Every structure is written in C-alpha cells, then in structure tokens.
Amino acid sequence: MIIPLSELEEDVLTAIIEQFVLQEGTDYGNQEYSLEEKVAHVRRQLERGESFVVYSEEYESVNIVPRRQLENS
How many Cβ atoms sit within 10 Å of the Cβ of residue 18? Predict the structure, then answer.
C-alpha cells in the first residue's frame, strides 16, 4: 500500500528516509554524501513520484520503493 506523503508527519517522514538511507547496501556511487544530502536526495525522489513510501501488510513494515520496482511487481 502506497502511503501519500501528505499523510505523514514531517518528523515521521524524515525518520523513514533516514532509516532507508542508512540501510546497508544503499548505493550512491563513488561520491561520498552526508546523511543530510542523502535524505534531501531521497525526499526529492519522493516528491517527484520517482519513489514511494510503501507499507507492507505482510511484513508490517514501511519502506521506500522506486517507481520502477512497483511497476515490475
């Protein structure tokens, strides 16, 4: 289930994004970015509809999923 950004409090959305960017395996290429830069980058992806905040009923968890992954599932 996609959670609209307007349904999330700002601090909750920030926490979700921070958790996402701190996950092991999140790839940003060869360039180093600060946590704040990574959070801003993901926030822009969410605002542009390139990624979505998704709740999984099966796993009872929230994650950020790229649009292309949702389209392929």
Answer: 14
